[in-house]
Amino acid sequence: MEDELQIAMADLDEEKTLLLVEERIKAGYSSVEIIETCRRGVEIVGEKYSDSHYYLSDLIMSEEILKGVMRVLEPYIPTNDTVQGPSIVMGTIEGDIHDLGKNIIIYLLRSSGYKVHDLGVDVKPERFIQAVNETNASILGISVLISFCVSSIKRVVDLLDEAGMRDKVKVVVGGYPVNQEVKEFTGADFYANDVTEALRIYREILGVEEGSVSEF
Ligand code: B12
After folding, report:
1. For a tag site, which of 9, 192, 215, 216 has the least CB within 10 Å?
2. Of 169, 177, 130, whose CA–CA distance to 149 is shortest?
3. How far does residue 145's CA lie from ligand 1's centre (Å)?
């Protein structure tokens, strides 16, 4: 079904996108619903880029608009200052600099009081292992948007195995190209390519019940 906000985002119409976001907040839509609609719009931007209808400058524009959407939404995202649950390490895999999706997930987890160590982008497999060791994290979230970088995620899982740490860490892969096949190839435990599924997975791992105080 065509959605006005999704279309405005796909058309890179900044003014209309932000206006519709404000309207949806007032109408009672959740932040997660709004983010997801915008993400689908940005997905169309990616398709138009693949078809050569959009250029790199349009990808950059979509980044700017999405950041603007997050600035509008942030005051409406409920926060919980009590630090809770196990440590989580997150980063974008080596060779990949996309971080908007990762940052949204980190923002939502931190808002719910979880301790997230953000390693940033273009993170080498060895650095993920080092960070898990340093922070005693039991959840490792790895973001990937560039397909050819997927093999480096397998390397992270193999290194965890070699270090005898595999059983202690749940590995979650996320990003536009991930699917069941990527999960199986990399040896990850879970995968998500939208915000709703990402939060469902974290809830499941953290044992957070829907409707509880620590829910995202
Ligand atoms: C915006 C954008 C950019 C921005 C990135 C800005 C930034 N700070 O991230 C800029 C302009 C810098 C950029 C650069 C490039 N990009 Co780009 N980019 C995109 C675009 C349009 C949107 C990505 C995005 O932010 N989506 C919105 C967020 C919210 O969605 P998301 O990332 O999927 O994240 C959600 C879920 O996946 C999930 N999630 C994400 N991470 C994680 C992690 C965990 C642990 C979990 C649980 C969940 C999770 O939750 C998020 C919330 O909903 C995509 C198209 C697409 N379909 O994704 C192309 C795309 C990813 N880019 C692409 C390309 C080719 C490039 C460039 C190589 C272009 C170039 N010629 O230079 C460079 C990459 C350089 C590099 N080495 O990384 C291709 C990749 C093709 C491929 N399959 O390999 C795509 C698919 C476009 C296309 N169709 O061709 N890009």
Report:
1. 215
2. 177
3. 5
- Superfamily (CATH H level) for 4-76: Methionine synthase domain (1.10.1240.10)
pLDDT digits (tens, 9 = 90+) for 116-147: 999 999 999 999 999 999 999 999 999 999 99
**Does any ligand 1 atom lie closer than 6 A to the CB of residue 59?**
yes
Class of domain 84-206: alpha beta
Q: Strands, E, within the chain: which ranges?
A: 84-92, 114-118, 139-143, 170-174, 190-192
Domain ranges across the chain: 4-76, 84-206
* Ligand 1 contact, 48 CB (< 6 A): no
Q: Is the CB of 125 under 6 A from ligand 1?
A: no
Predicted pLDDT at 198: 93
Q: Is 183 in the pocket of ligand 1 (CB under 6 A)?
A: no
